[in-house]
Amino acid sequence: MEAAVVPQTDVAIVGAGAAGLSLAHRLAERVPGAHTPSVTLLEAPPGPLRPPPRTWCFWERGPGRFDAAVRSDWRLLRVCPPAGAPIVGDIAPLRYKMIRSDDFAELVGRDLARSPHVTRLEATVETVRDVPGGARVGLQDTDGRSRELTARWVFDSRPLGSLPAARTLLLQHFHGWFVRTQRPAFDPGTLDLMDFRTPQPAKGVSFGYVLPLSAREALVEYTEFSARPLTADGYEAAVRQYAQEVLRLGPLRVLAKETGVIPMTDAPMPSRVGSSVFRIGAAGGATRPATGYTFAGLQRQTAAVAAALQRGRRPVPPAAHSVRSRAMDAVLLRALDSGRVDGPALFCRLFARVPAERLLRFLDGDTHLFEDLAVGLRAPVRPMLRSAAELPRLPRRPYD
Questions:
Q1: Whole-model pTM?
Q2: What are φ and ψ of residue 300, in 5° steps?
């Protein structure tokens, strides 16, 4: 029988993306009367295991924890149907906020550097396993040497190698350009959340997404909900078509690009892997299945974990989204995947009939039951009910 470990650190955090950095940031805080655990943050060395720069968006009421890293924010959002007048909504008192991952890492890194309780270590994590009284992390350091780190608790934020079996899986895949135009082309006070004037795929839905940073700079993105990603050339063509034929931006300079794929699935994403090993972030179910938004969910998750550790309790990450929210998402995903609902018509109908602030709270799981029912009644009821009725009979299938 293996002997109980003597932890070298109270908490090991695997991965220094949004989830790992957020948890380390919360654990570095000194809370009067609370335990401050020792933390080792394990970050992959530069290379294919370290994610490229990316953009995270979320909405919240009033000042936020990471406002110093917010690149821009908006209270007006626009949804454009395939034809006809756009729908503009005011989300006050909420603000829709944009953070670049480099800015976030710099902000959090400064705070972590001042904490005597946090150690940062560049290493490739190869194994994580439970042992009596804690966990062992097998890793390879930057010199190629293998070693082990023992911890009382391990929180793994790395992407899953494969997804759990699901009844429905769509991919939210996107490609964006950060552009600077020769002429003023954007309204800095209004973001385009969904612009459906893009060519629609045979199965699924596509839309443009514009985050204006000034009158001449913006993130211009093509997004698609469908079963398969496009080719690199296909993404470039889609963004170019949207920028020039729909937005008519004219001459522009591409400053940077970003591409991503987010699974939209009704698969259960358990956060508990073992007695002392847990998943956080997207791997731990922080992504809202019907929207792909993750940042707000992982903040709720990491805040709860940090509070439990500081109070000396078992730090099981809670579900980032309620059972009711996940059930509604499963119905929506099935309705979209089956083709029973027209995606652009559905989303335009919701934004036209539901106040924008309430709809965003609904998408973040921050509404009461009667508000959820009111939103549901604005959707096409018959195809939604048919999708809900067939879900219990559908098998769960594994996906790569």
A1: 0.94
A2: -65, -40
